[in-house]
Amino acid sequence: MDNDRRFESVYSKKVRAGKRRTYFFDVRRTKGDDFYLTLTESTKKFHGDGYERHKIFLYKEDFNRFKEGLDDVINYVKTELMPDYDYEEFDRRQAEWEERRAAEDAEAAAGGGDVVSSPSNDGEGEDKPSGEDNDKPSGEDDDMSW
User: pTM higher than 0.70 for the full model?
Assistant: First the structure.
């Protein structure tokens, strides 16, 4: 088996979390045709000096315990520490932003070229985390611009 296959990504999910932070959830294949997850937080640096990345490797034998622990601490914060907080607020903001962005993109495509999206303001232009496990060819996922 060649070395490129070692870090083959078989499934990816990109979650935007505001203007400067993005999470990447990638399912990877090992040499032995086993699977594991990489969870990457990518934060844009303030002065445009690239991205800071933090990565967790999660193996199949830990999936259930990890998910149970994560669910437990999230529920604790939501029910015990901050029960009155509106956790859907940011989902609504993101949906509104995506709708505006789609309308601007449609207008620009229709010839209304006055609309300009700024990469520094909307999170676009963020690169897929770099390194040895960044083997996804550009354009492989139409819905994700790495």
Answer: no
